[in-house]
Amino acid sequence: MRFLMVGLLLGLSLPAFSMSLALAKVERAEDGETEQQVCDRALTKMTDELHTSLLSVISATDTYQQRKLAYRDKGLEESLLNDAYLSQLFAEKPDVQGKRWTGSRCSVRARYEADIDALALRVPMPEVVPASSGESRNPPPPGVDEKTWQLFSSSRDRAELSQVFTTVAALRIQMVEYYAMTGAWPEDLSSIGVAPEQVVGKRIRRAYMLQDGLLKLELAGPLQGHSLSTWPTDAGVRGVEWQCTTTVDMGPNSFCEQVE
To answer: Which CATH class is domain 158-258?
Structure first.
């Protein structure tokens, strides 16, 4: 269950291409989550929204349009240009001005100011079409170094997986309710009144259950080929806690253990 998501454009002067943003984010804790996990997720999602806002303004500049035409002339998709900008914007972070934890949710407020002209120039004009190679299934776009691209990819994958957890959290609640009523974990999704097609979407290709409450998800979209597994553990007086593993590389401070 996600709460309020706000990005307010306070001031945008197009002739000078200066930008001032006020941002706010509220995230609710799921079962077993700590304050740091919830607040980190709120800040991550806020930062992703900031990057999206910056890219939308950059795309209106002459600098972006020149690169768009150059990419087209080289036979490169505009999505590669967008990824190149997003990877360059990876280092841009909002200035946090307030954070509040209520015990069940985290509220974060922040502000950001930018020189759009300077940001638009970060991606160079493409000079050559990169040679095709089977060594990397996700090579960096032109003008983006490998290290920056890897950091950006990890951040993007982490954001995608956090969206998957919206579905995971809802299924966990239904599984706990089933366990409270029956004393056993459900054997399949239909046991908790969920049809497999209700779970499948742009981020989840398949979901199914195994014994002892093990829920497995095969991912789709940008995370195609990856998987996530989550299962309950008895925490005594604290009730049920959840563990999870994933093949997605989310970089440091992962909220799921990474496995091969």
So the answer is: alpha beta
